[in-house]
């Protein structure tokens, strides 16, 4: 199965905490883009100069909701972390680098703390995978010996 390498993980059970944090923040931010488009979705995208703000905001929101749920479940964790990494890189470049230019490093560092945490959390999940308390672990678990005897 081509997905096996993407699902395998040797991470400790405590990675669940990182999955829940990163997944919930992305899920929550995606939902808010749908609920409050003027301030969190298309309106914000237009304000920062992104192209086709309405379509792009719904596209990004959909990925945030879907990937957030996948991360919380620990399902396709490495694959789900890739869009979140891309989203955070774009967010930092479009919203935090201008702050660096206008207000300096410390203001940018303050404003970017959540973005930076979400980026590093997503990279961490891409590297280590979902851990044993995940759907990925269940999908890659070897068959118990009794189950193999019944199949024979």
UniProtKB/TrEMBL annotation:
It holds the Pfam family DoxX. Keywords: Cell membrane, Membrane, Oxidoreductase, Transmembrane, Transmembrane helix. Its main location: membrane. InterPro entries: DoxX, DoxX-like_oxidoreductase. It is found in: Cell membrane. GO terms for cellular component: plasma membrane. Coiled coil: none annotated. The keyword Transcription does not apply. It is a multi-pass membrane protein. Its EC number is 1.-.-.-. The chain crosses the membrane at residues 12-35, 56-76, 82-106, 118-135. One of its GO terms (molecular function) is oxidoreductase activity. Belongs to the DoxX family. PANTHER family: INNER MEMBRANE PROTEIN YPHA-RELATED, OXIDOREDUCTASE CATD-RELATED. This is Oxidoreductase CatD. It comes from Botrimarina mediterranea. The gene is catD_2.
